[in-house]
Amino acid sequence: MTNDVAAERRAEQRAWYVYDWANSAFLTTTLTVLLGPYLTVLAKRDACPGQDTDLACHTDLHVLGVPVAPGSLSLYVVTFATLVSALLLPLVGALADRTGRKRSMLAWFAWAGSAAGVSMVFLGGDNWELGVVLQLIATLAFACSIVVYDSLLVDVAGPDERDRVSSRGWAAGYIGGTVLLVINLALVSGHDAVGLSTEGAVRLNLLLAGLWWGLFTIVPYRRLRDRPPVDPVETAAGGGLLSMARASFGQLADTLRHLRGYPQTMAFLIAYLVFNDGIQTIIYASSIYAQEQLGLSSDQLILAILIVQFVAVFGALSFGRIAARAGAYRTVFGSLFVWCGVIGIGYFLPHGQFAPFAFLAALIGLTLGGTQALSRSLYSHLIPRGREAEYFSLYAACERGTSWLGTLAFGLTFQLTHSYRYAIIILIVFFVVGALLLRRVNVRAGITQAGNPVPAVI
Q1: Are 148 and 65 spatial neighbours (Cβ–Cβ below 8 Å)?
Q2: Sequential DSSP letters for 154-174
Q3: If DSSP codes are grouped into helix, strand and coil, which group holds residue 62?
Q4: With bands split at pLDDT 50, 70 and 90, how would you rate the model's confidence at 120?
Q5: pTM for the full model?
Q6: Which residue spans traverse the membrane (predicted)?
Q7: Phi, psi of 68, deg, nearest 5
């Protein structure tokens, strides 16, 4: 590789990192910390008018005739968004592979989600319906952008670079999330000084998160470059978007048929589906659990997630170094047992005490970035060249922002028991089953089956 080519690759990698900086801040501030609890408050205000929103509300909302506990509403929205994603994301992946316009697709999905995030500044009163619509749009746009973003890893990093590049991307995301969370914490804690109510500070933070995502997306849009499709399939002349969509579904059907020819890839994808659902549910439900079950305040929630973000920077980079010696596969496998410990500690946390929850936040941060970054780089070795976005669309169906088995189990358990403690303990099943399934994956054989070079350490 010449010096000019190497410099260009490093420049693209830096631009790729910036999108993690952009979207992770939105994921953390809006989809993890603020929106779920705030939407719960709006729903409780509608279901139990006149009641203090700090108290439990045992009156159900009725959404299209279905009774829904206010405390489960946001979790069910995530579940529904994922079911829609099952139809949408494969089309997005197929289109990205066929058109070779990944850079533009990444940006436009990000800007659509950013617009929904900015519009959350208008939430208030008991208007949970608008919150549901905006959460759906933002979650779907986020998921679509991640399909394209993850597939770009193969373009910007070679086989022996991917663990390092993927880990640095996650670290950049956590740094970005930390910076924005510091601003969030300052606004929520000092809302009186700037003439805002607590809810006003929350809405302002939702606005800032949407702007952050949209503005920083300009960097990868301008600095990444599109590449021609690998083995493109011609579409009928003049067919336009409809013809492209029809051909893309045909390509997806072909990929699903051929996925059976990559049994280790399929085995890894199934294992990842299970254990990542547990991770995603912890990400989405942690703020609701802390507010509703442990009685922590909004500024304490932000401080806890700030701890997660800060520790996760070092966790992602440390896991990358561990993987360089022990291999990504062994590192991910070991992390699943740490997640079981996280859930066990979370179940026994005392009500109203921040320090134990802060310790748990640090443990989550240490494990979170490494598990996700190394899972992404490990999977990138198991997919055939030229179908990265399409295969990552399957991966994204169980990636951050699109979990549904865990959120459904969590929401149903709370609705049946009215206890978030029982809801959180059920998540251990996802990590135990995920570890058992991951144990059956032969990664080296899978890389060979996909026709990819085997890294020095896997």
Answers
A1: no
A2: HHHS-TTTHHHHHHHHHHHHH
A3: strand
A4: very high
A5: 0.72
A6: 21-39, 73-93, 105-124, 130-149, 170-188, 200-219, 266-289, 301-319, 331-349, 355-379, 391-414, 420-438
A7: -135, 125
